Amino acid sequence: MPLNRRTFLRATAVAGGTTAFSGAVWQHAFAAGPAQPGPGPYGAPLAADANGLQLPKGFTGRVVARSLQRVEGTRYTWHPAPDGGACFADGDGWIYVSNSEVPLVGGVSAVRFDASGKVVSAYRILNGTTLNCAGGATPWGTWLSCEEHDYGLVYETDPRGERSATPRPAMGRFKHEAAGADPVRKVVYLTEDQPDGCFYRFRPQTWGDLSAGTLEVLVGSGTGPVSWARVPNPQIWTTPTRQQVAGAMRFNGGEGCYYTGGVCYFTTKGDNRVWAYGASAERLDLAYDDDLVTGGEPPLRGVDNVTGASSGDLYIAEDGGNMEINLITPDGVVAPFLRVVGHDGSEITGPAFSPDGTRLYFSSQRGKSGFAAGTDGYTFEVTGPFRH
């Protein structure tokens, strides 16, 4: 962005025109305004390994799956353009689910690991949908897969593949991106990937049942106190949901969404921001803004999917940039955690931790070729001494 805008934003932040992200307000908050560059808790990424992963000391990586190739040890062919994902505990092992961001056949695949981390099966849990981008896990153990087009739906899926996937039209028809479930307030937050998109929450009539409820949109004028207003026609509309409520806040390309400890974090790619919605105070703040970085070049560009560790660290994947996953610590330091080399035309998607927090999964959507159809996608696993 232009230097004059960055200078203006810095000045207003210092003067109080942009609300600082106060660490005293809620759990996992940052100490003194939007995160700033600094040394990460694991040190800098080292030289690339055989898979093109630059990882910190003590960490190792492997390729779990390749698009249009059989997942090792199974007869299942992994999907193209892997995107949003999440992990679910399953017996003595766990399951990683991954969306496919392609038209018409999109859907979701899953891969199951045993207690040692060995792949034991892979299978399909959603078929025949289009441009399944990101989504989110629910507290009752389902995966919400979101379609990214103007009439897109949220589909509730079973990571084990034992129950049929179900569309949830009450959650609205719009260009869905990601979802984050808040079990305290019993709502699901939703992002919208439009240059003038909105931030929503869905209040189901019965918690645990997403078949009926109320869709609301965030209303406000910027950081600070905000409120919610009902979207009149979330399912069948001639006026898009984002244009139905006067005063609805605009967000430039909503992407990842992750709820933890009373805060819903979400990202906007058009202005490289990580937002923090404090649910109990109904307050919006900035956790990161590349225009507010004061010490050198911003390390985090092209913000996209986001997840968190039990330590309170946020992990934010880059769409483009230099193909990094950056972390933001609870004390407000942003630093690269890993980098993928040789995938310059791709983006990092689907970061998610195994239930025990020792393994991080993610994908390079278009792989080394950068081909838009995502036929060269890679899904990785990183193992190491993640802090808790």
In helices, the fraction of residues equals under 10%
> Which structural category fits the helices and strands?
mainly beta
**Overall geometry:** globular
CATH-defined topology: Neuraminidase
Distance between the termini: 36 Å
- Oligomeric state of the chains? single chain
CATH class descriptor name: Mainly Beta
Low-pLDDT windows of residues: 1-31
Overall pLDDT metric: 92
CATH superfamily: TolB, C-terminal domain
Largest sheet: 6 strands, mixed
Using the CA coordinates, give the radius of gyration: 20 Å
Number of helices: 1
Total individual domains? 1
Q: Approximately how much beta-strand content do the residues carry?
A: 35-45%
Spell the H/E element sequence. HEEEEEEEEEEEEEEEEEEEEEEEEEEEE
The CATH architecture designation is: 6 Propeller
Throw out a few tags for this protein.
single chain; 388 residues; Neuraminidase; 6-stranded mixed sheet; globular
What can you tell me about this protein's structure?
By secondary structure, this protein is mainly beta. It has a single domain (3-383), classed as TolB, C-terminal domain (Neuraminidase). The chain contains one helix and 28 strands. The chain has one helix at residues 3-15, and strands at residues 36-37, 53-54, 60-66, 82-90, 93-100, 108-113, 119-126, 132-137, 143-147, 154-157, 166-167, 176-182, 187-192, 199-206, 209-219, 224-225, 227-230, 254-260, 263-268, 273-278, 283-289, 303-308, 314-318, 324-328, 333-340, 348-353, 359-364, 378-383. The radius of gyration is 20 Å and the shape is globular. The protein starts with a helix and ends in a 5-residue tail after the last strand. The relative contact order is 0.18.
